[in-house]
Amino acid sequence: MTTDAIATIARVRFPVVLFDLDGTVIDSGGIILASMRHATRTVLAREYSDAELMASVGGPGLEAQMHAIDPERVEELVQVYRDHNEPLHDTLEACAGMPDVLATLHAQGRRLGVVTAKRRSTVELAFARLPIAHYFDVVVGGDETTRHKPDPEPLLLALERLAAPPADAAYIGDSPYDIAAARAAGLFAVGVTWGRIHGAEALGDADALVDTAEELLDVL
Q1: Is the C or the N end of the chain the one with fewer CB within 10 Å?
Q2: Catalytic: 20?
C-alpha cells in the first residue's frame, strides 16, 4: 500500500466496504427477470407479474425463490433458470458509475468485498465479463454459508476472512434482505435505488439511501 493510501485510509469512515452484486455492482436485474419468467413459463406454463417473480431476489437464494413459487417443482425450475441465465452473463454491464467508484475506493486503500446470493461459479461468470474482480479482497457466494441474507452469516464470514470488526464496515445493497443482514451483523447499511429489482420503498431501514454510484463516496 502506498503512503498516500495509508494516509487516506486513516481518515475514511469505513475502511471495509462490502457490496451485494446483483443490482448493486452489476446491472443484472433484466437478465434475472427474463430467466425467472422463462423458467416459470417453461416449467409451470403460468404467467406471473414482475413483482411476484422478483420478490425474493437477493435474499435466501435461488432454491428458496423457486420454492416460494412452486414447492413441488423447485429442482426443475432452478435448472431451467440456470440454463437460461448463465449464457446471458455474456451481455452483462456494470451499474452506472460503479467501476469508477470501485477504483476510487480501492485507490484509497480500503478493503472491498462482495457478499452475494449468487453461487461462486456464477460470480465468476460476471467477473469474466467485467474486469472488476481485482478490486475485491474477499468474495462470499450464496453456496458458501448455511444461512443466507437476511441472516447476517454471509456478512460475518466476509468480515472473518478480512479479520475486520463490523464497526469498521459498510454493506451496500439494493434489497431489503441486504439492509436487514447488514443491520443484524452490525454494519452500516447503505441502500441503492438503481438496481431495478426492488423499489426504494423496500430500503427504508437503511442507514443511508443513495440514488447514484457517485453518492456512495459521500456516505462512506
Answers
A1: N
A2: yes
Distance CA 187, CA 14 (A): 10
Q: Residue 118 and residue 141: Cα distance in Å, rounded? A: 6
Q: Please tell me the pTM assigned to this model.
A: 0.92
Mean model confidence pLDDT for the chain: 94
* Sign of the alpha-carbon torsion through 127, 139, 163, 105: positive
Mean pLDDT of 156-173: 98
N- to C-terminal Cα separation, the chain: 20
Mean pLDDT within 65-93 = 96
Q: Give Cα 21 to chain centroid, integer Å.
A: 3
Alpha-carbon separation of residue 112 from 53, 144, 155 (angstroms): 30, 18, 12
Q: Which three cell numbers stand for residue 54?
A: 422478483
Catalytic residue among 4, 20, 27, 205: 20
Contact 5, 107 (CB under 8 A): yes
> Is residue 174 helix, strand or coil?
coil
Residue ranges in the chain assigned as alpha helix (H): 3-9, 29-44, 50-54, 62-69, 74-88, 98-107, 120-129, 153-162, 176-185, 213-219
